[in-house]
Amino acid sequence: MLRKAYEVALDNIDEGLIIVDGEGRIVYLNQVQLEFDELKMKEINGRYTWDVYQFNREISTLLKVLETGQSFGDYVHYYITNGGQYVRVTGNNFPVTIDGKVVGAVAVYRNLKKSEEMVGKIIELQKKLHQHQMEQGMASFDTGSKKKYYTFDDILGESEHIQEALSWARRAAVTESPVLLLGETGTGKEMFAQSIHAASNRSKNPFIAINCAAIPESLLEGILFGSVKGVYTGANDHKGLFEEADTGTLFLDEINSMSLNLQSKLLRVLEERKVRRLGGKTEIPVDVRLISSCNLEPNREITSQLRSDLFFRLAVVTIKIPPLRIRRNDIKLLVEYYINYFNELFGKKICAVSPKIEKFLKDYSWPGNVRQLKHWVECAMNLVPENENILDENYTPKEDHIFNFNNNKPQEKIEDGPYGIKYRDIVNQIKEQECIKIKEMLERHKGNITKAAHEMGMSRQSLLYRLRKYGMK
């Protein structure tokens, strides 16, 4: 009964499954894999996988797992099914051990057709939304503005650090050189990217932006470079973002999250100014100005996440966007701007902030930078009554332990609630606890990142990002 239950469960999951014995002979394929490859279990039972799928024995990933006893994956695999169809899958292989001896292996495959169709739809929706926003002037906070993109005038700040960044960006805008924007989360990297595009001679041409960390590695290549019909089941001719951005600007946000393999392909495109679609044989010329960004220091990026040759190719012009904590003199200007904006949006009449609020706003470190400041002002403006004209501590977010107005020092010991430690200590403890949890999961699964990520309820890519972020090996 239990065996039958296992078979029913395995036949009704989304992934294809292949199980082989210690010699590489097929023991079991679930119904998903059989239908996908157009095979019948009675015809392949006991045969070697390389004979069934007609490939060289030496490149068998399952055989590699049997020989080493180590898991293998996450990888992208192309092959031809029994029915003659080209397919593209992601695969993970795992050893089966009994009493310390490898007695078989399991391969888990996911067809990328549905995932890529979904991502394609998402990209199309993002493009339509972006176009609608541009038409409505959403990119600017100024009511009634019909500007297509942020411009340098939208970037507020009088401090030396922000003015230096703006000066560099304005000079870079009139050239064709690649630009690398370095800055923490919330400092306004895309505002700078759009402003550079808007001030360039490409301003009337496309501006395409994509967050490299938001797209799975297995799909990002096709999204960037496109694909041709037949490269995998259901694939059609599809333009990549390089072609979409032709004659314009392509902004690659969080480029440090891109895999090393994809980085090498990106480097080739930048050097040759030609792109080859996934599965294609011809190279397509592209004229694209590339702007990229990352949120870590460049020295750390070179050594841990970015190929050095790609870094120097991207960082012809490097612009450091300062965090809000080192441009505190701009906080008052930004707060006044956001108050005026939300006054009009919410129908409020706030004309000033209290001295106590002003001091706390200026003293706080703002780890989320300008974005966090904007969201805090928006929250406070939701709380203040319509008949009030001064924003004071009575109308600030009460549950946000960042601001304790009964204490003269922000981030010092919090008297109310269970938090009897400094704010920075809370952040450090969160990081420490996460590192301990990651280490514990990796030890439990003997270094297998895929299994550890699954148990932690996150994607493999997210766990890899945290390993790089915390410098864990």
UniProtKB/TrEMBL annotation:
Assigned keywords, A-Z: ATP-binding, DNA-binding, Nucleotide-binding, Transcription, Transcription regulation
GO biological processes: regulation of DNA-templated transcription
Record flagged with keyword Transcription: yes
Top-level division of the source organism's lineage: Bacteria
Domain PAS positions: 2-55
Domain Sigma-54 factor interaction, first and last residues per copy: 155-382
Entry-linked InterPro entries: AAA+_ATPase, AAA_lid_NorR, Homeodomain-like_sf, HTH_Fis, P-loop_NTPase, PAS, PAS-like_dom_sf, PAS_4
Pfam families registered for this protein in UniProt: AAA_lid_14, HTH_8, PAS_4, Sigma54_activat
Record GO terms (molecular function): ATP binding; sequence-specific DNA binding
Record's keyword annotation contains Plastid: no
SMART domains: AAA
Protein name stated in the entry: Uncharacterized protein
Organism, scientific name: Formimonas warabiya
